[in-house]
Design a protein that fits this description.
Blueprint (H helix, E strand, L loop, with lengths): L1 E7 L3 E6 L6 H11 L12 E2 L2 E7 L4 E7 L3 E2 L6
Antiparallel strand pairs: 1-2, 3-6, 4-5
């Protein structure tokens, strides 16, 4: 993972670039802790090769995982 501060006006703006094989959420969490970010906006573009997503099954009251093991584009990255 590579990072760079590109603006520091009324708010800081960073670029975070992940390498193949990097875990995105873990990397963003670690970056936020290192930078002492408490209230932040995140947006992202790119592609992923292994994705675990899911949905909440209301009748069973559990999350149902969906694993995708192929390259897919990121349509929206928000956290």
């Amino acid at each position: 993972m590579k990072t760079k501060l590109i603006a520091e006006d009324t708010e800081k703006t960073f670029v975070v670039v992940f390498e193949t094989g990097d875990e995105v959420i873990a990397g963003l969490t670690r970056f936020a802790r290192e930078q002492h970010l408490h209230g932040s906006r995140l947006s992202g573009i790119g592609a992923l090769s292994h994705v675990k997503r899911g949905f909440f099954n209301r009748s069973e009251k559990t999350y149902q995982p969906i694993v995708i093991d192929e390259q897919v584009e990121v349509l929206s990255l928000a956290r």
